[in-house]
Structures are given as structure tokens and as C-alpha cells.
Design a protein that fits this description.
478 residues; alpha+beta; 11-stranded mixed beta sheet; binds zinc ion; globular
């Protein structure tokens, strides 16, 4: 039968999580591979998901006063090299344009790996006075980083994202912006994607090239690994000095502005898959799902069934539900499996028996539970169910995070816990990069962040035994 065949095609997540992920991105029709390694085609279903993500985030950005702009694709080599840490961080993975037609260019142009330097060059031209500040910009674009190993969504050479770039009169204002945007990502992940986050600051080793501070929201995937889901960077006036961006302040003095940038990419779709998916496929949070409910007519050749199914679809659409009807000639079993694979939160079945009883049957993707819904209550119950599913997905993910985050006082304890359970482990840290590297060598983990939510799990750094006041969360990251 088609249903079994379809489901059989996905590898069990407990057997091979990486293969399970790869199976889902192709079977749920999210991705196709292109002729160039690391360049993935976002198929309509993935792009619809990305559009929903864009639409919510874009609204949140604009609510805070940000405006969208479009910067060029190419960066002259001399421009990329102006900020030393930045170029050191990105140069190994940029792709170069060396020819225009058959003519060799006088200067190589890199395809943007990120756009800080482009914004800086622009700001140098347009910023004059304190009255011009703040400049709160964002752009939706793709960037290119020549990664060695690539995976759909998680590590593409080209990927889609938004990059926010802002310029402020004072350090305080820029720091507030950095935090505000981190909060936007945290709210978005938790309330829309049902992905609970650990909010914190990156260690110096893990921060963005050229930033004074990088803040992150880290999420735990189903295999207990971490996904850095959104980052917000504070640059101070380092870039402004490197690019000679100045403005006259209220006292008519020439001063340097302070800068931030922040980004979230299509990587988050990989996060949604690995947070909520199961062995039947995707499992999408209703608030972001391209299709929230699918209506499937049962015994559709019987009189009245298709008409009734259409009527339910129309009613749900009018009630603001993103609904689709599946009238294809596939068997109901095939359609069930197909919509499970695509993670549609609610399946609504309507057949002759249901019509007789003035009801339909709703099946939840998250629990598999089925319930009869009286047609007089259709809109109300479907909307309630969508909320229940959204909450349930968040609760489940939160449990996973909570149950797989542990404290360790010593290195031996850390290694024993990590070998047995994996997941996130909190330890104290003295602040030295040497100890951070040693932790990686010894335990095979990297620092995910210094969580804002601090506690004292011991008195000393587990590596050097020096007194330590800072708690770090460690794990394996995608
Ligand atoms: Zn130490």
C-alpha cells in the first residue's frame, strides 16, 4: 500500500538521525539538489515556510522602526580588508569574481558572505549629523560562504537570511539595540516556532568576526545537539573607525557612531525539522505552517461528500485558517501519509457517515489523536486545536531541553554525564580561552553560550581549578 511505502522511505530517527533529516527534506518536498555542491533549491513548500517566517519577523522588525534596504551582491577586495578581524574571519570562505565577460577585473570582487562592510561604506557617505541617527536597516537576501561540508538548511554555501544593521549615536543605544533584537529572535523562536531557547552571550572564541560581543539564542534539537538559531552582534565603534564613519554630535564635535548587526537564516527551517519532526515526517507549528489544516473527503464518489468538503474548506478559509482540500484521486491512506510527511497540523476527514451525524473528524499531527467535531462548532474547534497543538509542541520541546540539560562540577563528572546522555551541560568557567579549548579536547564539546540565566554549579573551573563565577553551557553544535 502507498501509505506504508511512503513511510518506509524515511529512516528511523533513532537509527540514523542524519539520514532521517535528509530523508525528510526530500520526501516532504522541501529541497532539491542543484548541480553545484552546497547550493540547494528551496521548493515551494520550503519557500512558503520561509515566507511565513519572513512575514512575522519583518513585522516585528518594522514595529521597532527598522526599514528594509538592498545592498549590492559584490564587495571589492580592498573594502573587505578594511576591518582586520572581519576579513580574517571570512576570507577563507569567500568566493571571488575575477572576470567580467572575458575581461579580467583590475580588482577581485567577493560575493558577500555578510554585508557589514557594504553598510559601512554606504554610511560613510550618508551620515552627517546626529539628526541622521539611529539608522535602523535590514535586508532580506542570500549570502555565500564556501563551506567544505554542506547539508540542506544546516550548512549551505548559499543561504537565505535577513541581516539587520544599525548605527547609533551612543554605545548604550547600540547595546540596547543588540539586546532588543536578541529578544525578538527569542520571542519569535518560542512563540511562533515553538522552539524554546537558551539566551546568552558567546565566549570570545565563538563570537562573530569583528564584534565586541555576540549574543545568541541556542535551541536543542531532538538528538540533543545545539542549533545556534539567531545571533545579535555589538560592534562598538570598531568598524566606524576602520571605515572613518563620523558624525557631528549635538556639541558640533566629530565623533564615531556605534554599530550592531543581527541575523536569522533558513537554517532555522532545519531547526524546525529537528525539533518537532518524527518518524512520520515533518511536524509544523501551526503559527508558521504553510497549510494549517487539510480537508480530505472520504468516499468522495458518494453524493454530497465533495460538496460538503468544499463547504468546510470555504468556512475555514473565511475563519482565517490556512486550509487546503485534497481532491486528488489518491487513496485516503496515501493522502494521510502525505500530509503527515508534510507536517500539516490538522487533518479533517469528512465522509457520508460524518455528514449524517453533522460532524467531521479531526486528526492531530502532533499526537495522532482523532476527535469528532460538530459542524456547528467547526471554526471554533479548529482554531482551538491549532492553539493546543502549538502549545503542545512548545511544551514537548521545553521538556526535551529541560530533561537533557545537566550540571557538572568537575571534568570527570562532565565527561561521564556527556558520554552517557549527551545534551547540554552547565559548568563553571574561569574565562580563559585555554580552558575552553581544553574542554573541547577532553570532552568533545564547544561552549554554546554564557547563559543570561546564571547559577552556581560549583566554585571552580573544571579544567584549571581556578575560582570561577561564570557558568557556561556546553554541547555539540550543528
Ligand atoms: Zn579555567
Amino acid at each position: 500500500m502507498a501509505k506504508e511505502k511512503n513511510v518506509e522511505q524515511i529512516t528511523d530517527m533513532d537509527v540514523d538521525f542524519a539520514q532521517w533529516f535528509t530523508d525528510i527534506v526530500t520526501k516532504a518536498k522541501l529541497i532539491d539538489y542543484s548541480g553545484v555542491k552546497g547550493f540547494f533549491i528551496l521548493r515551494p513548500y520550503a519557500y512558503a515556510l520561509w515566507e511565513n517566517i519572513q512575514s512575522v519577523l519583518d513585522g516585528m522588525f518594522k514595529e521597532l522602526g527598522h526599514e528594509n534596504v538592498a545592498m549590492p551582491l559584490l564587495i571589492p577586495e580592498s573594502l573587505l580588508q578594511k576591518e582586520k578581524d572581519h576579513v580574517d574571519g571570512f576570507a577563507p570562505e569567500v568566493a571571488w569574481v575575477t572576470h567580467g565577460g572575458s575581461e579580467e577585473l583590475a580588482e577581485r570582487l567577493c560575493i558577500r558572505p555578510t554585508s557589514e562592510v557594504l553598510f559601512c561604506e554606504h554610511w560613510k557617505n550618508v551620515l552627517h549629523s546626529w539628526r541622521d541617527l539611529p539608522m535602523l536597516y535590514n535586508q532580506w537576501n542570500s549570502v555565500l560562504r564556501w563551506e567544505k561540508s554542506t547539508r540542506p538548511f544546516l550548512r549551505g554555501r548559499e543561504f537565505y537570511w535577513q541581516e539587520g544593521h544599525t548605527l547609533h549615536a551612543t554605545a548604550e543605544e547600540a547595546e540596547i539595540e543588540t539586546q532588543n533584537m536578541l529578544d525578538v529572535y527569542a520571542t519569535f523562536c518560542e512563540e511562533y516556532l515553538a522552539m524554546p531557547v537558551v539566551k546568552g552571550k558567546k565566549t570570545d572564541k565563538e563570537k562573530f568576526a569583528g564584534a565586541l560581543a555576540t549574543y545568541t539564542v541556542e535551541c536543542m534539537m531532538h538528538d540533543k545537539k545545539a542549533l545556534q538559531s539567531g545571533t545579535s552582534h555589538y560592534f562598538g565603534d570598531g568598524f566606524a573607525k576602520a571605515f572613518e564613519i563620523q558624525f557631528s554630535d549635538k556639541n558640533n564635535q566629530l565623533v564615531y557612531p556605534h554599530q550592531t548587526s543581527w541575523g536569522l537564516s533558513t537554517r532555522i527551517i532545519g531547526g524546525i525539522i529537528m525539533t518537532h519532526g518524527d518518524n512520520n515526517g515533518l511536524n509544523l507549528p501551526p503559527r508558521i505552517a504553510p497549510v494549517q489544516a487539510v480537508v480530505i473527503p472520504i468516499a468522495s464518489h458518494k453524493p454530497g461528500v465533495l460538496e460538503k468538503a468544499d463547504e468546510l474548506t470555504t468556512r475555514l478559509k473565511a475563519a482565517g485558517v490556512r486550509v487546503k482540500i485534497d481532491k486528488s484521486d489518491q487513496s485516503p491512506g496515501w493522502k494521510f501519509a502525505e500530509n503527515e510527511m508534510k507536517g500539516v497540523p490538522i487533518r479533517i476527514e469528512i465522509g457520508p457517515k460524518d455528514i449524517e451525524n453533522d460532524q467531521c473528524v479531526a486528526a492531530r499531527r502532533d499526537t495522532g489523536e482523532k476527535q469528532a467535531i460538530s459542524l456547528t462548532e467547526l471554526e471554533k474547534r479548529v482554531n482551538e486545536l491549532l492553539e493546543e497543538i502549538q502549545t503542545n509542541l512548545f511544551t514537548r520541546a521545553k521538556e526535551n531541553l529541560k530533561n537533557n540539560t545537566r550540571d557538572a562540577a568537575t571534568l570527570d563528572e562532565m565527561k561521564a554525564i556527556f558520554n552517557e546522555h549527551g545534551g547540554f551541560i552547565n559548568t563553571m568557567w574561569c574565562g580563559s580561552q585555554e580552558c575552553e579549548l581544553k574542554m573541547r579536547e577532553e570532552a568533545g564539546v564547544t561552549s554554546r553560550c554564557i547563559p543570561f540565566d546564571q547559577k552556581k554549579v560549583a566554585d571552580t573551573c573544571p579544567i584549571c581549578k581556578a575560582k570561577a563565577d561564570t557558568m557556561v553551557v556546553w554541547g555539540i553544535a550543528y
